[in-house]
Hints:
With about 120 residues, the chain is mainly β. It has strands at about 5, 10-15, 20-25, 35-40, 45-50, 55-60, 70, 80-85, 90-100, 100-105, 105-110, 110-115, 115-120.
Amino acid sequence: QVYLTESGGGMVQTGGSLRLSCTATGRTITPYSLSWFRQAPGKEREFVAALRWRGNEIHYAGSVKGRFDISGDSSKTTVYLQMNSLKPEDTAVYYCNGDGEIYGSLWSPGRYWGQGTQVTVSA
């Protein structure tokens, strides 16, 4: 079992920045990957960014590429999401996910989810 704990959400104005953190605990073997998804009110959960430790492979959704940066620490149990140039459409609950994988060009979530952290961007 893997437990994921997010932190760092909050409220910012358009153009501002936030940094989210996600720490994995519980399993002796660290997650193969850690990623971020988000869900806005009335919308489906969508992929944001992913880091797969093997090969230090990184993936971004097109809507955040160039504005968001995902990184991890050397313990491979914590991943960060630096979010810059935030827009109102980035407003959502952001979820950390563990053990996801890419299939073709789509990132598929793994079975481990955090509780989520709210990000609100005001106009």
